[in-house]
Amino acid sequence: MSAQTAEIGPRERAFVLGATILASSLAFIDGTVVNVALPTIQEALDTDFSSAQWVLNAYMLMLGALILVAGGLGDRYGRRRIFLIGIALFTAASIVCALAPGVSVLIGARAVQGVGAALLVPQSLAIITATFPRAVRGAAIGTWAAASAATTALGPPIGGFLVDLLDWRAVFWINVPLAALAIFLTIRAVPESRDPAVEGKQDWLGAALAVLGFGALTFGLTGFSNGVENVGAAAYAAIVAGAVAIAAFVFVEMRVAQPVVPPSLFRSRVFTGANIVTVFLYGCLAAVVFLLPYEVITRRGMSTAEAGFTLMPVGIIIAVASRLTGRLSDRIGPRSFLMAGTAIVTLSCIVFALGIANYWIGIIVPVVLLALGMAVVVSPLTTAVMNSAPEGRSGAASGVNNAASRIAGLIAVAAFGALASLIYFASAGDTAERFGVLPEAGDPLRPELELAFDSAYRGAMWFAALWAALALLSVWLFVRNDESTAGAARA
Hints:
By secondary structure, this protein is mostly helical. The chain has a single domain (about 10-190, about 200-490), classed as MFS general substrate transporter like domains (Growth Hormone, Chain: A), CATH 1.20.1250.20. It has 16 helices and no strands. α2 packs parallel to α4 and α12 (about 305-330) packs parallel to α14 (about 360-385). About 60% of the residues are buried.
């Protein structure tokens, strides 16, 4: 269909929802599973901490920067078409990741995975927006969030089990059957939809500047991950170049006819505020999920499967609560949910930062708090973003919000990793060789290095608590219930 909306019945919409959930789960599962497997990957490939960071960052960079273009591509060329291309590319790159002989090939394949994810992720929400009437859209988005979380909840423990039973490569093979089913459902049930009002050339210059800017900034921050004495001039130059490219990106977006980030979207106070909240909140989440497996596996000596089970409550609790919070926010507005959720996430990070030795109190309690906070926030935040955008720009709005969350995660992994590394090397002194790997129990250097690792972990978690608190402040300053749907009426 060429119209902006696709009129289909309730039964067909159920299949559409299934296809978008499965495809989104490809990207979501890969993030959580790779986080859990990362300490094992670093040790198996005998690489340093900065290279291990790039196994995550290459994926998030391409996903976060290109998702800006991909949302618009769906509006322009058809959401179903771009959705299918993204699934196929993601799957092919997953196979290369599974077969990678070394860290360089793995990082390259992860970048291609990010391109595929950038194509499919924004289309999932845009397809829901195009096929579900506004009256039931909040519930549909809540179901998408809940079901996607339920699918990904089992990712960490299953991935950890596969790593322990087989090896880290198995975490990439699990994408193949999910992708096959998603392609089948999409071909069978998803109608084509696009925005006929989209005209002009695609803003490839803006996309290139985004990749260059955020990539250079990430490279520069990651340069601090092997100790301040090893930071070269290239790291500082990359940070400066990244800042210049990002400034150029903003300049270009305000002047091109078809920007990848339409400035008109930010006329809505709720849209602007919700995306600021997204940056701080999802940056905090990414940092916690990145560092926690190192704490559990490297310092506490748990298995990869046990680390996976440690993270499982995040997905389960979000899955149970998101549909309810989506419905309630449709009725009473998102502000109270966003205030409560960001406050709970802040409390979670504070408990992490206290460094309590007891596993249940120091790890499980804040993991549950983190899950509760995100469960309260995720659906109302997404619905607020989508409902505050004009009807014809749902793909672009989805792309901006997804980009905000992914780029926030990209910068957070680089920045928090660098912070943790700097604290670690400053505490350990000459006895430290690389962050993320500790000597075996019984080694005379173990106590000193373990203490340095603990200081690094706690320092990074205090910084995460600050980010969560800034998300809470942003809700208080920007989000108002009486404006939560006003943006949809604006041109």
